[in-house]
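From the methods appendix. Each design record in this collection lists the tokenized structure first, followed by the designed amino acid sequence. Records were kept in a plain field format so they could be parsed without special tools. The example shown here is representative of the layout used throughout.

RECORD:
FOLD TOKENS (350 positions):
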């Protein structure tokens, strides 16, 4: 079976031949920040959504999703959710900057993806849309605007376990997908902001900013994007995404100084004013962290966050705009909606 078989002619009769018709799709990690927005976008398009997650979610039930309790690492759970599906949107994952979580993330991202693809082959589900990250493509030590032709070196992110695990996940997905005859499309958003991050998996640093817990301005550059815009384009990848391709999705390319200044204006909070020296470096960040801990205090910036903020996460989303219809809304609206949601959800201490 060809690795580039048409999404409009799935094997084994899995789904209708009309690509525009409503279909049954499976969303793993459906209770996450992007997962909830994606399920809403898919339901708005008329698709039947089987939401695979380890916990119940009333919001997904209100959207009319079929709730399937389960784990992507459990073949029996996948075998219950996948029969008759036209595609799997694979979002299940874990975001952590703690090196102690590296084994858990590697198992979930790599072995979980392997389990999903093998289950897809068993049930003749033709297409996988993998939610990855811009950090597998677009990270640089310099002020460069990258695109999908770029490839973040493993050496650059070697000390950042989340991004290392996502690089291996992508590689496994494309290679095993080709071997098993499954179409694989990857979407690679930048930092997700906007309303609805119930677990603070992506907006935690905004919370820290609002609480005055970020005392310095890092020297690097940031790209962020509204989760609702990513969800809409990810839903479009069901039909429009080209097998074997990755799609960067992002908003503005700002320096960290500009990001904090604009966030401060939106939130009416005084942001950090002390600029960290450029290229503090891994050893400098680690030394700063150890000094704080030696004094019995929590460091304002952990080593990994410090290193990451020295880099530039800038890129161009032209491919996603051209092929998936991706469009990023005004970034100031995203910041406003993020702050409003966090204050309503977490209380007046913000």
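DESIGN:
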């Amino acid at each position: 079976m060809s690795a580039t078989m048409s999404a409009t002619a799935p094997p084994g009769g899995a789904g209708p031949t009309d690509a525009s018709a409503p279909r049954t799709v499976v969303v793993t990690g459906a209770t996450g920040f992007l997962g909830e927005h994606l399920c809403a976008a898919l339901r708005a398009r008329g698709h039947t959504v089987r939401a695979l997650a380890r916990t119940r979610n009333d919001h997904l039930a209100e959207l009319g999703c079929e709730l399937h309790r389960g784990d992507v690492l459990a073949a029996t759970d996948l075998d219950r959710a996948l029969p008759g599906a036209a595609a799997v949107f694979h979002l299940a994952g874990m975001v952590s900057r703690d090196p102690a979580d590296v084994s858990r993330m590697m198992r979930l991202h790599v072995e979980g993806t392997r389990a999903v693809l093998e289950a897809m082959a068993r049930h003749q589900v033709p297409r996988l849309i993998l939610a990855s990250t811009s950090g597998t493509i677009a990270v640089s030590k310099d002020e460069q605007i990258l695109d999908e032709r770029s490839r973040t070196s493993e050496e650059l992110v070697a000390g950042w376990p989340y991004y290392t695990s996502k690089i291996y996940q992508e590689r496994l997905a494309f290679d095993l997908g080709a071997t098993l005859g499954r179409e694989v499309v990857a979407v690679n958003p930048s930092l997700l902001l906007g309303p609805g991050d119930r677990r603070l998996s992506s907006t935690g640093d905004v919370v820290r900013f609002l609480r005055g817990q970020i005392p310095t301005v890092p020297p690097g550059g940031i790209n962020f994007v509204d989760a609702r815009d990513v969800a809409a384009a990810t839903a479009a990848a069901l039909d429009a995404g080209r097998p074997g391709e990755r799609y960067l999705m992002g908003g503005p390319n700002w320096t960290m100084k500009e990001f904090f200044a604009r966030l401060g204006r939106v939130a009416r909070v005084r942001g950090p004013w002390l600029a960290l020296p450029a290229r503090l470096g891994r050893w400098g960040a680690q030394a700063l962290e150890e000094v704080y801990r030696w004094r019995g205090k929590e460091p304002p910036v952990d080593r990994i966050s410090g290193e990451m903020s020295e880099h530039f996460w800038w890129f161009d989303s032209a491919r996603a705009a051209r092929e998936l219809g991706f469009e990023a809304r005004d970034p100031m609206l995203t910041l406003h909606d993020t702050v409003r949601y966090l204050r309503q959800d977490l209380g007046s201490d913000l």
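APPENDIX NOTE: The chain has one domain: 21-256+310-344.
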